[in-house]
Specification:
Helix content is about 40%, strand content about 0%. It is mainly alpha-helical. The protein has a domain at about 10-55. Helix 1 crosses helix 2. The longest helix has 16 residues, at about 10-25.
Length: about 70
C-alpha cells in the first residue's frame, strides 16, 4: 500500500513569524495587541505569530471555526 503524501499546511513566512514570536515571548518582550499586556502563554504566542503571517500574506490555513453552543437556560 502506497503512503499518502500530505501537503505542508504552513508556509515559510508563517514559521518565521511564529519563531520570532516565541523568541520574543521567551525574552519577555512579546505584547498582546489590544491590551498591551505581556504574553506568557505559548499558545498565545503561536496565535500572534500566525495572525501576523496571515496579515503579511503568508500561507496559513484559516483559523478554526468555533462551535457556538451558547448558554442553556
Amino acid at each position: 500500500m502506497a503512503k499518502k503524501r500530505t501537503r505542508r499546511r504552513y508556509g515559510d513566512k508563517a514559521s518565521e513569524k511564529v519563531e520570532r514570536a516565541m523568541h520574543e515571548r521567551k525574552r519577555g518582550t512579546l505584547r498582546s495587541g489590544s491590551s498591551g499586556k505581556k504574553v506568557t502563554s505559548r499558545k498565545q504566542a503561536i496565535a500572534i505569530g500566525l495572525s501576523e503571517a496571515r496579515r503579511a500574506g503568508g500561507k496559513v490555513p484559516a483559523p478554526r471555526k468555533r462551535k457556538g453552543g451558547g448558554k442553556k437556560r
